[in-house]
């Protein structure tokens, strides 16, 4: 227990920051034009200590193998039944989860590309820092 | 006198903690797990060493577990885990013994094990009363994993 706490505390210090932009996670991440800084707990995933929970906001590799990462919320985990936007029922297989953006209308998520493997998760997002407008010319 | 009482009390405490958290011994009756447990024709009872150190999330397919009987409160059953949450089980569609769980958890022709549950079956499929009758078992019902079983006077690993 103490070992887990130490690792997660170290994780909070050594997290990697992600620059994100997009409308799919509004109002949680309000960065349609400006970038936001996302603080992720990556070491928890590296040490295998991350236990996925429903309603966690996580960053995971985009399923189209482009090497990019996307940030969405976990809505269902393995073994759950979930109703998709096309009113089908999906059953989440072992080792997968269902990701959805908070902004249902403007989100490309599991409703489009299906279940995502849990191994694709890069880290759980625990803080969002909006960046000032003048930094939005980066990238 | 006081030291004897203290020693006895600490002995009781240690054995209680040990049997609830580390490992315990349990008697297993019946042929639903033969030939693994009670396989010999003359054997009606065996003793199983149930280890409680593996956490529930580390229970895998193929593990034999001791769990609460979902049908009868206060009773326990020893069965093998065949599927975990997120996995499918092929069940016989015209099995007359199946209960109401079938309508709830069927998905695309197979039974889908819901989150937090597992599917247990006895090794002796003909006479075993298991998940095929009472449906998926919540993982919280599992008390521990059977690691050794007596075989007459010897112990065998399972």
Q: Which secondary structure elements does this structure contain, and how are they paired or packed?
A:
The complex is a heterodimer of chains A (139) and B (158).
Chain A: H1 2-13, E1 17-22, E2 31-41, H2 42-46, E3 57-61, E4 69-77, E5 81-83, E6 89-91, E7 96-100, H3 110-113, E8 116-117, E9 121-130
Chain B: H1 2-21, E1 23-29, E2 45-51, E3 64-68, E4 76-84, E5 88-89, H2 101-105, E6 106-107, E7 110-112, E8 117-121, H3 131-134, E9 137-138, E10 142-151, E11 154-157
Antiparallel strand pairs in B: 1-2, 2-10, 3-4, 3-10, 4-8, 5-7, 6-7, 8-9, 10-11
Helicity of chain B, in percent?
Answer: 10-25%
Average pLDDT number of chain A: 85
Instruction: Encode the helix/strand succession of chain A as letters.
Output: HEEHEEEEEHEE
Provide the gyration radius of chain B in Å: 18 Å
Strand coverage percent of chain B: 35-45%
Largest interface between protein chains, with number of residues from each side: A-B, 12 and 12 residues
**Straight-line distance between termini of chain A:** 41 Å
How helix-rich are the residues of chain A, as a percent range?
10-25%
The number of distinct helices of chain A, counting runs of at least 4 residues, comes to: 3
Instruction: For the record, give the distance between the C-alpha atoms at the N and C termini of chain B, rounded to a whole number.
Output: 44 Å
Strand elements of chain B, count: 11
Ranges of chain B where pLDDT stays below 50 over 5 or more residues in a row are none
Largest sheet of chain A: 7 strands, antiparallel
Shape of chain B: globular
Determine the structural class of chain B based on helices, strands and strand pairing. alpha+beta
Helix and strand sequence of chain B: HEEEEEHEEEHEEE
Strand-pairing-aware structural class of chain A: alpha+beta
Our count of helices of chain B gives: 3
């Amino acid at each position: 227990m103490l070992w887990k706490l130490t690792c997660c505390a170290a994780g909070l210090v050594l997290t990697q920051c992600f620059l994100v932009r997009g409308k799919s996670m509004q109002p949680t991440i309000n960065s349609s034009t400006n970038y936001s800084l996302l603080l992720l707990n990556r070491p928890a995933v590296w040490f295998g200590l991350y236990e996925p929970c429903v309603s966690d906001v996580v960053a995971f590799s985009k399923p189209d193998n482009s090497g990019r990462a996307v940030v969405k919320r976990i809505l269902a985990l393995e073994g759950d039944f979930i109703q998709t936007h096309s009113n089908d029922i999906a059953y989440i297989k072992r080792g997968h989860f269902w990701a959805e953006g908070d902004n249902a209308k403007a989100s490309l998520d599991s409703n489009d590309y299906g279940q995502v493997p849990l191994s694709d998760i890069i880290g759980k997002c625990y803080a969002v820092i909006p960046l000032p407008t003048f930094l939005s010319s980066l990238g | 006198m006081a030291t004897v009482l203290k020693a006895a009390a600490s002995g009781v405490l240690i054995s209680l903690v040990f049997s609830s958290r580390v490992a315990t011994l349990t008697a297993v009756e019946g042929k639903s797990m033969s030939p693994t447990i009670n396989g010999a024709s003359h054997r009606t009872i065996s003793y199983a060493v149930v280890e409680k150190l593996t956490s529930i999330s580390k229970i895998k397919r193929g593990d034999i577990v001791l769990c609460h009987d979902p049908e009868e409160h206060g009773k326990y059953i020893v069965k093998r885990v065949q599927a975990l949450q997120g996995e499918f089980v092929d069940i016989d569609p015209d099995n007359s013994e199946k209960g109401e769980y079938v309508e709830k958890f069927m998905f695309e022709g197979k039974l889908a094990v819901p989150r937090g549950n597992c599917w247990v079956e006895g090794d002796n499929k003909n006479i075993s009363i298991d998940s095929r009758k009472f449906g998926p078992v919540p993982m919280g019902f599992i008390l521990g994993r059977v690691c050794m079983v007596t075989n007459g006077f010897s112990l065998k690993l399972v």
